[in-house]
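Hi V.,

Quick status before I head out on leave. The structure for the redesign project is tokenized and pasted below; the design run finished overnight.
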């Protein structure tokens, strides 16, 4: 190695210190590469890498590659520079791939939304057509005679769809023109017509999905928000409960599920229309008729006191007043039996 004067020695030491510091930064940067790809800050870190790259290039340009520098350090610097360039190329490629992946995700989201809207619209149309067809008893009889397995599958769909619908719109109900609302209305209308026949309600209350659906009707009705769309939905729900109560097994299931809690909420709801109040009293009439189990009688009277029903007997509409009087008569008769 050539002889160096004092000034050149200081210059060499300073240069080597700069190189070693840069080398540490390079190693730290290389170690951080996997973490960069695991975060959403790829573009920010890519920009940082470009800045670091410029600084490294500047360092290499300023550093004199003379024979005074050891060949080992020179080779290591060249190797690190090559690795940095390779990593920079990889970052650019991965950044592009990530951007393309995000674009593909957005495209697929739009496609799924479009398909979901189409399927819901189709379901709403077919559901309402089937609802109207099921008004004819002979249609329902044919379904129950020849397609019981399909009716079971249908009840499973109704059970899942209704629960998801209420969970989604629990706080803000959609307008009645909403296709999802129309779809759910069609499904509940079909179940109402199926349960209108003795065979239909027997199938409904003995099918596992049907029983779960009835349980959801009892549980979710008080949770429905006040909105114009809930009136029609509650009407169908109460009609299904009334039909189920006309079946011995169904009545037992309603009483075990404390249907009186739901009926009490319906009678106490000041927003309930007279029609809703009448439907609620009809269900209560059916539930209290010939009721002779002390447990159920006690639960009913404790939840819906006779005094509350007596207030309804003074209603202006005669059908509401008469229904309330009938409920009181049944409850008083049941009380005498249990004494």
């Amino acid at each position: 190695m050539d002889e160096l004067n004092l000034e050149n020695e200081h210059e060499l030491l300073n240069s080597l210190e700069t190189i070693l510091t840069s080398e540490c930064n390079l190693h730290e940067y290389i170690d951080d590469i996997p973490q960069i790809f695991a975060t959403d800050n790829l573009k920010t870190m890519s920009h940082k890498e470009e800045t670091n790259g410029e600084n490294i290039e500047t360092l290499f340009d300023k550093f004199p590659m003379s024979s005074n520098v050891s060949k080992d350090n020179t080779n290591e610097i060249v190797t690190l520079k090559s690795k940095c360039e390779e990593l920079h190329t990889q970052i650019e490629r991965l950044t592009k791939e990530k951007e393309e992946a995000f674009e593909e995700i957005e495209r697929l989201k739009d496609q799924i939304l479009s398909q979901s809207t189409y399927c819901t619209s189709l379901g709403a149309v077919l559901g309402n057509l089937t609802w109207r067809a099921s008004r004819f008893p002979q249609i329902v009889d044919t379904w129950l005679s020849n397609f019981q397995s399909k009716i079971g599958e249908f009840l499973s769909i109704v059970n899942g769809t209704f629960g998801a619908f209420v969970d989604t719109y629990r706080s803000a109900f959609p307008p009645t023109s909403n296709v999802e609302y129309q779809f759910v209305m069609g499904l509940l209308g079909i179940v109402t017509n199926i349960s209108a026949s003795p065979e239909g309600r027997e199938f409904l209350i003995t099918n596992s999905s049907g029983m779960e659906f009835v349980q959801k009707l009892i549980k979710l009705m008080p949770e429905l928000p006040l909105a114009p769309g809930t009136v029609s939905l509650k009407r169908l729900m109460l009609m299904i409960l009334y039909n189920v109560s006309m079946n011995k097994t169904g009545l037992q299931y309603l009483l075990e599920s404390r249907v009186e809690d739901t009926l009490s909420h319906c009678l106490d709801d000041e927003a309930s229309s007279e029609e809703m109040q009448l439907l609620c009293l009809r269900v209560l009439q059916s539930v209290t008729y010939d009721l002779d189990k002390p447990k159920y009688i006690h639960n009913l009277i404790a939840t819906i006191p006779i005094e509350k029903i007596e207030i309804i007997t003074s209603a202006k509409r005669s059908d509401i007043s008469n229904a309330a009087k009938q409920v009181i008569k049944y409850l008083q008769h049941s009380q005498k039996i249990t004494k």
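Above is the designed sequence. Residues 1-6, 36-50 have pLDDT under 50 and may be disordered.

G. will cover questions while I'm gone.

Best,
W.
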